Amino acid sequence: MRRLTRSASAWEGPVGPVSIRKLVAVAVVSLLATACGASDDVRREVAARNAAAAGSGQLAAGAPGGPGGPGSSGAPGSPTDAAAGDANAAGSAAGPSGTSLSSTVSGPAAAGRSRPAGSSGIGAGTGTTGNGSGSAGSAAGPSGGTPGSGGAGTTSGSGVATPAPAPAGGNGGATDIGVTADTIKVGGIFFNGSWLDRYVQVAEQAARAYFRYINDQGGIYGRKINYISCDTAATADGTQSCGRKLGDADKVFAFGPSMDVYSNVLNEYIKERQIPAVGSMAYYLEDVRNPYVFPTQLSSMELAALIGTFSAQKLGVKTVGVLWLKDFVGADCLDQIRRTGQKLGYQVVVEASSGTTEDDMTPQVIKMRTANPTPDAVLFCTDAVNQTKFMQAAARQNWAPAKGWVAAYGAIDDVPKAIGPTAKGMWTLTTFDYFGSDTPGVQLYRKITNFYYPSMFHHFFSQATYAGAVALVEAMKQAGPNLTREKLLDALRSMRNFDCGMGLAFDFGDKTSGRAASGLMLQADENLHYHVASERFKPVM
Amino acid sequence: MTRFLSLLIAGLTFGAVYALVSLGVVVIYRVSRVVNLAHGAMGVFAAYVFHYELVGRLGLPVTVASVLTLGVGAALGVVIQRALIAPVRQDGAMTTLVMTIGVLLVLTELPLQLWDPQPVVIDSVFSDRTIEFLSTGATIHQIGTVVIVVALFVGLEWLLTRTRYGKAIECIAEDPGGARIVGLPVKAITTATWALGGATAALAGLLYIHLNSLDSFSLTFVLISSLVAAVLGGFNHLGLAVLGSLGLGVAFSFGQGYVDTAGVPDAVVFVALLAILVLVPGRQESLEARPEF
Questions:
Q1: Tens of pLDDT along A32-76?
Q2: pLDDT digits (tens, 9 = 90+) for A206-263
Q3: Fewer CB within a 10 Å sphere, N or C end of chain B?
Q4: Would you put residue A57 in left (φ > 0), alpha (ψ -120 to 50) or beta?
Q5: Is A453 part of any domain?
Q6: Closest Cα partner for A391 from A368, A374, A370, A373?
Q7: Do A319 and A270 sit in the same domain of this protein?
Q8: pTM value?
Q9: B256 contacts chain A (CB < 8 A)
Q10: Cα separation, B200 vs A499, whole angstroms
Q11: Do A397 and B130 make contact, defined as CB atoms within 8 angstroms?
């Protein structure tokens, strides 16, 4: 009967037409898939611009110049650096490299991209702030700077690193795995294929933008950074595969900025191979404790301590509810909120959990609003998407806690808008200076990232990967021309108060104490826009 | 008591969304013996068209746009069936299933490329005003969703069991070759059923996404729970699928509301599913031993 039924399936059409239909089906799928892959406006636009710039040298000259930032300094651009500029830069009144942005930033990134010959690029200017000895107009084109420049030194506050020129005697060539005379291979691990794709993609772009910025200025001691990213497809297996592909097949010198939810599965591999990893997300305590891993984001426990401290000291809460994500990150965050509460006098009276992809948050809201006593505030130890769903469900029930919502992971501009009117007054933590603010370091971050990826938006994870790129470049610069993993690790461990200019400092010599943790709070206004609503503060751990 | 009633009502209203999705899945399965894993993605895609094209670009009233969106869903069902599913049906159920996964992936990615990936809230024909009762409440949108599910269930049950069309579907499902020999317009009926399934997917997309935000993955995760409900109905029984969906919604709701241990609510539901599959006679048979064609 089955055989008969199969043969009788001629109702679907004779063999010939079916074959044609198969071809059509394959073609349709292929076209759709091609359309998906080919419609990345950002990449196309940037590629086109870069291609054009490659011909004229415009990109190199127009690249956001003027590295530096709070606390940074730098020697003036060397003649070598000036020579690295293009003809457009010749004769321009470009300022000294490494000067403070507050005095040197003269225009938007777009000006750098399209500036006419003779005009100055971003960061070019006439200021002389900083402890370098630069003088106005002493160098043109991409800002340079001497190796090791950077404010009070790279072991404490550094700002954005200046590229290091190639030594006259050569850089030693292939000094270690993944290093040649011309390139340094750096791996990045990112998870696409989840509900957080768009945030992940921007995080990768932020890191890549900074590396391109450094490369466009000559790289580090003559070596360009070859940043190879790998997509885990948001699976732990994918993370394992990516780590081994990058480490064993691509033979990267180091892991660079990464955003991956399963980073913990690579810890043993990283230890075994002793591969430095700079700029990961600190999702897991194991990552922070790994002597070879140097995250540039705070751990969930530090974030929890920050929002707990703020809730107690600024909002004066006595009872809180916590929505937490059902994973290690959420659990650590919840535990720390409890501990902070014990020290500061509030109590977690109700908790509700959510999966990574929750269909409906109404039950969790019911649990919160029917708790006895009801929470003064709801603290979020979950991602922005689940937070959004929760607050939307609360709005449908006409409920909000008396002292408001406080989020650990909500510093993304579109979150209040996605939530809707109930987000007015919502507090959210940002560890770096708010990406919408005008501090010199943030301005530089925006200019570099928007120069290379004009369509990119910002969030605190993209700041973290950017900070990771800055930290890695600074450490490689400190390690010197004869670059080895061992020297890089030594350099990293000597960075005890590293700030890429965006407010948050890292102590890579003591990653676990939480000593360097700090943050500030944003609040959504009537128009659902964030504004900075607190001074930078430190947590009670 | 307040918490109990609130959770019960929340569970029923959300179970209605599961039911909406599972009804569409069952309808398509009944005619073509295909578990359409792209069903949720079809609904989301239609919702994107609703929000960005019909309401956003053309400025149509929400009611008109909603009706047109059902047409979009139906058209999507037809295109997928004719262009992608039909050509591979002869290669067997597994190939067809994989094709629906391919469609799922494409339909999930395509909106991100065509429209703004920012998650947004979409409009609804129903108000979001909350009606309070029994110390709790539900929005008119949620109540409307329940009413639509009941109406859809009654309509589909009538269509599939009381009309020639329904009998034809049953014949085609049992023996497509025989159905063709006796003169049934197999191709047309199959396509029409996919159109019906596509329209229900669009309806589910509109009603569910209003409760959340428009992102390309959302309804696919609802689909997973709806498949559990469909299994309870043997992928064949609309009434059991609806009851299973409501039960699932209530179980999840109580689990989230009363159990502090993370993961338990999900585990309870799937343990129940396993128990039914193992203990209820004949449940597995409805999922297999069907002629492939």
A1: 333 333 334 333 433 443 444 333 333 333 334 333 333 333 333
A2: 999 999 999 999 999 999 999 999 999 888 899 999 999 999 999 999 999 999 988 9
A3: N
A4: left
A5: yes
A6: A368
A7: no
A8: 0.70
A9: yes
A10: 54
A11: yes
Question: Are A252 and A372 in a shared domain?
Answer: no
Q: Does B121 touch chain A (CB under 8 A)?
A: yes
Based on the fold, state whether residues A190 and A239 are members of the same structural domain: yes
Its ipTM equals: 0.73
CB within 8 Å: B120 and A418: yes
CA distance B10 to A533: 36
* Distance, C-alpha A182 to centroid of its chain: 26
Using CB atoms, pick whichever of B83, B178, B215 lies closest to residue A195. Answer: B215
What's the CATH number where B206 sits? 1.10.3470
A2, A3, A7, A12, best to mutate vs chain B, most B CBs in 10 Å: A12
User: In this structure, is residue A5 part of a structural domain?
Assistant: no
* A322 membership: H or E segment, kind and range: strand A319-325
Looking at the 3D structure of chain B, how many domains does it have? 1
| A328: nearest CA partner in chain B | B262
Nearest to B122 by CA among B147, B141, B138, B109: B141
Best of B212, B261, B290 to substitute, by most chain A Cβ atoms within 10 angstroms, is: B212
Structure-token pair, residue B225: 């729970």
Q: Please state, in angstroms and rounded to a whole number, the distance separating the CA atoms of residues A381 and A353.
A: 9
Q: What is the CATH number for A359? A: 3.40.50.2300
User: How far apart are alpha carbons A447 and B123 in whole angstroms?
Assistant: 36
Helix count and strand count (H, E) for chain A: 19, 14
Q: Is residue A225 in some structural domain? A: yes
Whether residues A282 and A312 fall in one domain:
no
Which residues does chain B have within 8 Å of residue A397's beta carbon, measured at their own beta carbons?
A: 130, 137
Measured CA to CA, the distance from residue A64 to residue A160 in angstroms comes to 12
Residue of A nearest to B129 (CA): A396
State whether A347 and A231 are in the same domain: no
Verify whether the Cβ–Cβ distance A8 to B187 is below 8 Å. no
pLDDT at residue A424, rounded to an integer: 94
How much of chain B, in percent, has pLDDT values that exceed 70?
93
- Using a CB–CB cutoff of 8 Å, tell me whether B252 touches chain A: yes
Backbone region of residue A222 per phi and psi (left: phi > 0; alpha: psi in -120 to 50; beta: other values): left
Same domain, A224 and A326: no
State the burial class of residue A47 (Cβ atoms within 10 Å of its Cβ: 0-12, 13-18, 19+).
Answer: exposed
Neighbours of A486 (CB within 10 A): 12
Q: Which of A98, A163, A257 is nearest to A473 (CA)?
A: A163
Please state the domain count of chain A: 2
Residue with more model confidence, B121 or B37:
B37
Please state the length of chain A: 541
A286, A340: one domain: no
- Shared-domain flag, residues A291 and A270: yes
CB half-sphere exposure, B226, CA atoms < 13 A: 29
A&B contacts, CB < 8 Å: 163
Q: Please say whether the beta carbons of B20 and B208 come within 8 A.
A: yes
* Residue B54 domain flag: yes
Structural domain boundaries, residue B171: 2-121+139-287
Name the H helices within B33-139.
Answer: 39-48, 62-79, 93-114
Domain annotation covers residue B133:
no
Q: Is B226 part of a structural domain of the chain?
A: yes
Q: Which alpha helices (H) appear in A311-421, and where do they start and end?
A: 328-344, 362-369, 384-396, 414-419
Is A480 a member of any domain? Answer: yes
**Residue B288 near chain A (CB below 8 Å):** no
Distance (Å) from the alpha carbon of B214 to chain A's nearest alpha carbon:
9
B32 part of a folded domain: yes
Q: Could you tell me whether strands A254-255 and B130-133 are parallel, antiparallel, or unpaired per DSSP bridges?
A: unpaired
Q: Does B119 contact A418 at a Cβ distance shorter than 8 Å? A: yes
